[in-house]
């Protein structure tokens, strides 16, 4: 392994420093999002920003774009201090961002979105519809997007085109620094983006590129800065670092995690089927079939947007499949909603991906959050018994190693890790025999991760079944008895037991080398 | 970059977003025409100029009030102060009448200023202090009602003759003058819509966060919406005074619900970002026309409300169903 | 790794403040409102010696009983993130039906529940529009309000007739041990209401729904039922307020509900609940209702004219809103000498 090159290395182009960031710190309440983050962008380079979920990438992007202001630290843009107070101020200085969660207005036209907040003026200082259309058309043409009608309402565009509009708007507003935050999440074809990024860097633009897809990063970027737990760990020449090196820097250890579940894999392969899905299709899903057995932990690996979200939400009863059947304990079921899913067969409980918007009830105590699904059972004659509630919440908190002292706090005041533990305790409290866990360790610290892994393993050992998706491969390697890779809405390949290997998974994630694996897996 | 001039075939499509934004207005316009046809068949004099003028005069205060409310609703807000401002300006007109055309101008300026001040207070509370709009404007509404009662504690007073005669008259014997005020509001709206602030209104209403990430000042847009709305309520109070020729400290109260009903009927989404002022004006006109139709159809005026309520709910339900059919993504 | 440890230890260091704050937020606003009531009544003595008496307290509580019942229903609806604008119309409906159908004749024992059921049906109609037809609560309850007022108007031909059933006269005019019956009723209702909102499974579901609808649904809360019931309860409460007013005034009018719309919302908001739903408790709402009534009677007693009284009422709502702002709590916490670790 090459030594990581720290600080500014020799730039690829004949670049000067475009933007340097020193010791940036930002905390939200008790949660420190970014601490001691430092980075140097050279003019004319594409610089990758790598890190796990929750490593602080989004916060750093927001600071660069002027959306949030750092608590400490400073930035220097083209030799002058740079401290934008708003997104417009950042643009005025030549820094623009294409955001991961698109910052476009669905009810406005493409051209208006491109030109916001100021449209071309026409007669008597009024915005000119013709001028707006014209300017929008010119921008689209410049970036090879002639097929998009500048007058169309943004919401009428397919997701990929909306993402392109977001990217183009950032290109238009960026003079010195362009930040692209997961720009390819909805793009099937990256060539268009890469061509324009290269054209921009050739003119001396500095590009900060954030992506989970290492292959893209390698194709486009020269150097990468790795962020871990809010700190910049190192800046490396990508040509000199292996994937393993980068993983290690991202997660703080070598990628090959010890397999925890290896011994019990064989036993689960013959256990009775508790959940079986056949021929499920709809939206992004195409002919998904699989079985989940008693006591089994089945991992799903996939890049962003390969249909995992739809799969989980369908199994939780939140959306209806266009076709296909779901059988629980051998009986075909049409799941009408989450509370129905909890009741069918041994029960299916869902841990949603968005902790804030779909998980926690922020004003209520952690204990109330945990017992919510089983409230009737801790009540007498419709009255919630404080003692029963405490006892039940303590019992389930213990299963996820959550400290009892937190149970009486409003859950919104707890750290992300404790919130996640409480939510896991909630799905376990339901008594459901099948758990659907969508990225159960997203944005939580390392200690919490271990507690969550242990809770999941224990649950399976006691005969429960788990279907979980994770954006972190080591997690799947460590936990899963079996693993399926979703790609383009299909189950692309499947690995069992000892075959679950990070390198092989990485290949399958981007659609390589799956077919023969699937044939040899032989579970179906 | 001017080298890339575009050819004409595309140009036709420019009208599209405009059409989409006003599609709610289109539905309510059809409804209005249908109702008017029914009205004409029940009451042959419906087509006479004097009946129409009467109808317009009756509808104008509500139409203007609803127009003001639309500004706030578009930015995903609520403004209950409409009732307070109308009562307040109405009693001001009745207690301090200003004679003659110049006096009318002074009165108008006072009404607009009072509305603007109340709007600025609302804007300060909601946009800057971030209070919940319903609660904050509820408070300002009550305060305005109180002020109205202080100025005039019981119905009475006289609005200046010039205002009450001239503004309810017809121009060239055909055009209702009060309608010209509505026209002025519509023109002002069409201009405003084509400013950066006007576009910002739609942007903030659709998605506050995305709007702010697009460089729009959310505070500025919200504040402007409340101030603009307040001034328009002031105008509504002015027109109501011309209509009733007298003062009533509670004259604004009926406008609270009806203004929201008109906005919703006119196809403006209460969750913001969709719709427009013209639809609300047509919605208000439809509600008032409905009363006439029911009356001339022999329905006891006691039951008018039942029809208004049912029409309101049906309009909303069909409006959203229609929106779904035409492929709009609903924001749930 | 070390940064994670830092985060944890900092978080733990902050625990005590957090706990203190939680108690603050939930009870302080309720206590503050009650204290304010007492202060106001005592202070009114300074203005006029006839004020601030025990008798006046009883009058205030009697008058507040209407608002307490009404704002219980409104509070439940607000808790789920909705709003019920149909209350005045349903009050009138309840009152008018009571005098015209029952009057002081026999049959009150089965007719009163029947009238309440009709009122509940109005609430159910609103809920159906809101939950299944997806009409915004504001519009839907406004529509039912317009419809119900119009029906009440038509039903009575513009002039309600009849008198109050004896049982309602007994409830509103009777007294025991020198204390008016409505005061006993108020106390019992407040306790039951508080238990329903804060201690039952149903109440807990309401908080869950109002805090985060999607999360509540995923956690298995029966959201349809929990969304519908508050509107039904709210309408039944309003119908009952109509009956109480009939008993109090021995008759009904078509405008008897008009003055209760805004106070029903104001009592909830002053009591510390967010109008966006998901927090607050009924103790605070009861305090809010009593405070509003106290202000009303004190101001009326010192002879202020109606206009000034209204201005003061609006001002009180505004002050309550400004004081209840989340940021203000944060700032107070900052001033209390325990700075945040992040600062």
Automatic annotation (TrEMBL), chain A:
It comes from the Bacteria. InterPro entries: AAA+_ATPase, ABC_carbohydrate_import_ATPase, ABC_transporter-like_ATP-bd, ABC_transporter-like_CS, P-loop_NTPase. SMART domains: AAA. GO terms for molecular function: ATP binding; ATP hydrolysis activity. It holds the Pfam family ABC_tran. Transmembrane segments: none annotated. Coiled coil: none annotated. The keyword Repeat applies. Residues 19-254, 269-513 form the ABC transporter domain. Keywords: ATP-binding, Membrane, Nucleotide-binding, Repeat, Sugar transport, Transport. The keyword Isomerase does not apply. Belongs to the ABC transporter superfamily. This is Sugar ABC transporter ATP-binding protein.
From TrEMBL, chain B:
InterPro entries: ABC_transp_permease. The chain crosses the membrane at residues 20-39, 102-126, 133-152, 172-192, 223-240, 252-270, 277-295, 301-323. One of its GO terms (molecular function) is transmembrane transporter activity. It is a multi-pass membrane protein. This is Autoinducer 2 import system permease protein LsrC. The complex is composed of two ATP-binding proteins (LsrA), two transmembrane proteins (LsrC and LsrD) and a solute-binding protein (LsrB). Part of the ABC transporter complex LsrABCD involved in autoinducer 2 (AI-2) import. Probably responsible for the translocation of the substrate across the membrane.
Automatic annotation (TrEMBL), chain C:
It holds the Pfam family BPD_transp_2. InterPro entries: ABC_transp_permease. Signal peptide: none annotated. It is found in: Cell membrane. GO terms for cellular component: plasma membrane. Keywords: Cell inner membrane, Cell membrane, Membrane, Transmembrane, Transmembrane helix, Transport. GO terms for molecular function: transmembrane transporter activity. It is a multi-pass membrane protein. The chain crosses the membrane at residues 28-47, 53-73, 85-103, 109-131, 138-156, 176-197, 218-248, 260-277, 282-302. The complex is composed of two ATP-binding proteins (LsrA), two transmembrane proteins (LsrC and LsrD) and a solute-binding protein (LsrB). Part of the ABC transporter complex LsrABCD involved in autoinducer 2 (AI-2) import. Probably responsible for the translocation of the substrate across the membrane. This is Autoinducer 2 import system permease protein LsrD. It comes from Metarhizobium album.
């Amino acid at each position: 392994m090459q030594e990581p090159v720290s600080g500014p290395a020799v730039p690829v182009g004949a670049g000067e420093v475009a933007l340097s960031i020193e010791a940036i710190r930002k905390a939200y309440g008790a949660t420190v999002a970014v601490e001691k983050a430092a980075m140097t962008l050279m003019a004319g380079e594409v610089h990758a920003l790598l890190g796990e979920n929750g490593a602080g990438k989004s916060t750093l992007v927001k600071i660069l774009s002027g959306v949030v202001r750092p608590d400490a630290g400073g930035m220097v843009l083209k030799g002058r201090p740079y401290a934008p107070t708003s997104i417009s101020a950042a643009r005025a200085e030549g820094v623009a961002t294409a955001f991961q969660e698109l910052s476009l207005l669905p009810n406005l036209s493409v051209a208006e979105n491109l030109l916001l907040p100021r449209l071309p003026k026409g007669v008597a200082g009024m915005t000119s519809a013709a001028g707006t259309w014209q300017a929008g058309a010119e921008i689209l043409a410049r970036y090879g997007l002639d097929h998009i009608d500048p007058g169309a309402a943004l919401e009428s565009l397919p997701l990929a085109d909306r993402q392109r509009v977001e990217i183009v708007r950032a290109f238009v507003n960026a003079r010195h620094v362009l930040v692209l935050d997961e720009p390819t999440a909805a793009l099937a074809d990256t060539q268009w983006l890469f061509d324009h990024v290269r054209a921009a860097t050739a003119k001396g633009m500095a590009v900060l590129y954030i992506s989970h897809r290492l292959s893209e990063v390698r194709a486009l970027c020269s150097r990468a800065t790795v962020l871990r737990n809010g700190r910049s760990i190192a800046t490396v020449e990508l040509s000199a670092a292996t994937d393993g090196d980068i993983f290690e820097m991202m997660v703080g250890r070598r990628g090959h995690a010890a397999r925890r579940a290896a011994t019990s894999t064989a036993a689960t392969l013959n256990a009775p089927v508790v959940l079986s899905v056949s021929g499920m299709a709809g939206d992004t899903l195409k002919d998904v079939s699989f079985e989940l057995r008693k006591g089994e932990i089945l991992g799903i690996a996939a890049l962003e947007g390969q249909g995992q979200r739809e799969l989980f939400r369908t199994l939780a009863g939140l959306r209806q499949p266009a076709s296909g059947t779901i059988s629980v304990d051998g009986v075909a079921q049409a799941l009408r909603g989450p509370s129905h899913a909890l009741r069918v067969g041994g029960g299916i409980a869902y841990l949603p991906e968005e902790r804030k918007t779909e998980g926690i009830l922020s004003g209520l105590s952690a204990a109330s959050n945990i017992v919510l699904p089983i409230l009737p059972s801790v009540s007498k004659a419709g009255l919630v018994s404080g003692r029963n509630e405490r006892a039940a919440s303590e019992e389930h908190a213990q299963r996820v190693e959550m400290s009892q002292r937190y149970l009486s706090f409003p859950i919104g005041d707890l750290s992300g890790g404790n919130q996640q533990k409480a939510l896991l305790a909630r799905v376990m409290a339901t008594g459901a025999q099948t758990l659907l866990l969508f990225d159960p360790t997203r944005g939580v610290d390392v200690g919490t991760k271990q507690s969550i892994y242990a809770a999941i393993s224990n649950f399976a050992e006691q005969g429960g079944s788990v279907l979980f998706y994770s954006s972190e491969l080591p997690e799947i390697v460590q936990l899963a008895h079996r693993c399926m890779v979703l790609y383009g809405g299909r189950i692309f390949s499947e690995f069992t037991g000892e075959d679950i290997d990070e390198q092989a998974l990485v290949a399958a994630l981007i659609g390589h080398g799956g077919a023969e694996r699937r044939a040899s897996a032989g579970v179906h | 970059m001017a080298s890339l001039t575009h050819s004409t075939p595309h140009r036709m499509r420019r009208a599209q977003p405009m059409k989409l934004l006003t599609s709610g207005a289109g539905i309510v316009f059809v409804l209005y025409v249908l109702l008017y046809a029914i009205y004409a068949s029940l009451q042959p004099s419906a087509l006479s100029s004097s009946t129409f003028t009467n109808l317009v005069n009756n509808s104008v205060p509500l139409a203007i009030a609803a127009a003001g409310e639309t500004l706030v609703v578009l930015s995903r807000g609520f403004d209950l102060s409409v009732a307070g401002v109308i009562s307040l300006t109405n009693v001001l007109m009745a207690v301090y009448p200003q004679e003659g055309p110049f006096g009318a101008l002074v009165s108008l300026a006072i009404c607009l200023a009072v509305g603007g001040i109340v709007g600025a207070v609302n804007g300060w509370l909601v946009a800057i202090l971030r209070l919940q709009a319903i609660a904050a404007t509820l408070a300002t509404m009550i305060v305005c009602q109180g002020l109205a009662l202080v100025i005039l504690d019981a119905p009475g007073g006289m609005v200046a003759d010039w205002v009450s005669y001239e503004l309810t008259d017809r121009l060239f014997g055909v055009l209702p003058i009060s309608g010209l005020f509505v026209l002025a509001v519509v023109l002002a709206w069409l201009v405003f819509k084509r400013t950066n602030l006007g576009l910002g209104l739609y942007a903030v209403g659709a998605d506050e966060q995305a709007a702010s990430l697009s460089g729009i000042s959310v505070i500025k847009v919200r504040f402007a919406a409340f101030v603009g709305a307040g001034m328009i309520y002031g105008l509504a109070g002015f027109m109501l005074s011309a209509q009733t020729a007298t003062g009533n400290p509670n004259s604004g109260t009926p406008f609270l619900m009806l203004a929201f009903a008109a906005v919703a009927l006119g196809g403006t989404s209460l969750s913001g970002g969709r719709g427009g002022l013209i639809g609300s004006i047509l919605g208000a006109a439809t509600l008032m026309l409905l009363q006439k139709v029911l009356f001339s159809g022999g329905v006891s005026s006691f039951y008018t409300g039942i029809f208004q309520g049912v029409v309101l709910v049906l309009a909303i339900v069909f409006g959203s169903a229609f929106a779904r059919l035409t492929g709009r993504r609903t924001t749930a | 790794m070390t940064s994670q440890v830092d985060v944890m230890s900092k978080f733990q260091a902050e625990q005590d403040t957090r706990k203190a704050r939680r108690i603050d937020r939930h009870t302080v606003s309720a206590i503050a409102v009650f204290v304010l009531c007492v202060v106001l009544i005592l202070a009114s003595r300074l203005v006029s010696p006839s004020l601030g008496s025990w008798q006046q307290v009883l009058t205030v509580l009697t008058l507040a009983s209407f608002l307490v019942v009404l704002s219980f229903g409104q509070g439940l609806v607000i808790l789920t993130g909705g709003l019920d604008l149909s209350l005045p119309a349903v009050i009138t409906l309840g009152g008018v039906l009571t005098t015209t159908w029952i009057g002081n004749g026999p049959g009150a024992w089965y007719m009163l529940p029947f009238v309440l059921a009709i009122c509940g049906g109005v609430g159910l109609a609103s809920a159906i529009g809101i939950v299944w037809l997806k009409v915004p609560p504001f519009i839907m309850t406004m529509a039912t309000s317009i419809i119900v007022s119009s029906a009440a108007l038509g039903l009575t031909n513009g002039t309600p007739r009849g008198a109050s059933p004896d049982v309602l006269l007994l409830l509103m005019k009777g007294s025991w041990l020198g204390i008016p019956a409505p005061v006993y009723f108020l106390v019992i209702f407040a306790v039951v209401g508080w238990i329903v909102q804060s201690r039952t499974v149903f109440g807990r579901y309401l908080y869950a729904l109002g805090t985060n609808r999607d999360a509540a649904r995923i956690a298995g809360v029966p959201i349809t039922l929990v969304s519908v019931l508050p509107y039904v309860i709210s309408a039944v409460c309003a119908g009952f307020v109509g009956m109480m007013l009939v008993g109090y005034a021995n008759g009904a009018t078509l405008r008897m509900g008009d003055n209760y719309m805004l106070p029903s919302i104001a009592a909830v908001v002053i009591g510390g609940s967010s109008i966006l739903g998901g927090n607050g408790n009924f103790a605070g709402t009861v305090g809010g209702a009593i405070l509003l009534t106290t202000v009303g009677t004190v101001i009326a007693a010192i002879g202020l004219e109606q206009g000034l009284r209204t201005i003061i009422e609006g001002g009180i709502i505004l002050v309550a809103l400004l004081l209840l702002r989340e940021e203000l709590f944060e700032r107070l916490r900052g001033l209390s000498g325990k700075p945040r670790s992040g600062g």
